[in-house]
Amino acid sequence: MHRFARSAPFAAPLLLLTVACAGDSGGSAGGSTSEGATSTGSSGSESGTSTGSSTGTSADTETGTTGEPAKTEGCDGRPLLPVPADPSVRGPWAVGARTVTIAERTTEIWYPAAPGSEAGEATATYDLRLHLPAEEQGKIPDEANPWQPCECYRDLPLDDAHGPYPVVVFIHGTAGFRTQSLTFMTHWASRGFVVVASDHTGITLGDVLGGNFGADQAGDAAKVLDALAAPAGETAFLAGHIDLGRVGLAGHSAGGNAIAGFGGRPGVRVLAPMAAGGATPGAALESTLVLGGMVDGIVAYGSQQSGYEAAAPRKRLVGLAGAGHLAFSDLCVLGAEQGGILQIALDYGVDVPPLLIPLAQDGCMPDNLSPEAGFEIIEAASSAAFEEALHCDAAMGAALAGLPGRYPAIGEYQEAL
Question: Nearest Cα to 249, choosing from 158, 164, 163, 188?
Fold first, then answer.
């Protein structure tokens, strides 16, 4: 038994993007912050923390990556490029990006691109103004716009020499949008996943600013998976190259609550709720990773602790000391030089309802865990969980268990395997 604990300051400001969170089931303003942590899993072949076939070694728990590759084969011997053994390090694939419509929802797909196909191409950039109500989009000029850069390239050919690739579906939170957690999604794609995220009508940023509520995020995600079972039209490039028998879902806040019941869907093997709750047991579910900010003022950290307790093994809980609600998104870094995306909107007269005008963003304050520090931990934990189950890389279990030794900002880590 090991204990990992760090004290964390408490901050509970309201939040631009989730203050209208009556729809974030499972969230609350109360709850407790744990001062300690317990690791309850055991090592060995039963825990999945060692002995998987691998051409390299798992991450060095003291210094990070060993520099050696992890597995070069996925489940059932499918070919993959060798990825860094440290799951916090981007993988060998350049990331392609395509914007498509699936089940009447604007959807982004990030995927492993053919090696070398990015040569001479410019990386993509997303225009966040398109997520405002139509009448507001022209108010912010180009020079003031908080453009969202992407470590990805538009419309590259998919790497069809490897795979087929597991699928990861991401669901955004209240007043979010499909690229709100772009940093994580391109990271996963670079390590051999096809990653899919939609704008969920009725709960997007534009909907919340326009006073339009009413979403079925779980239903949307189910329709996306149904459509991917028979790729056609804009998604035809995926035909024969994705494996819907190995699917992971991640979601932030309301999106994390939306994925909770997907463990009963055939093929869904990993659920990773972020700043939400946990996941209900399901016949297909092999792994649950619960991630939370220990000073989250929107969905209290106690919700993640109780969600973890209710989940069935194999399960892990990672609590980030000093992290708030937005640690699991890119929203604290977008437009930061100009005071943040809320300040930019106010400066240019975007009609922001009073209830959506907080004095600060939850998790974006100077005394919070820095976004960059949080990103590395979240990328490491989520990639390891996905690769363990969806790439059949048992060494990634050891990488997960070693994270508290690498990152002092992990204030709580628990596992039951």
Answer: 188
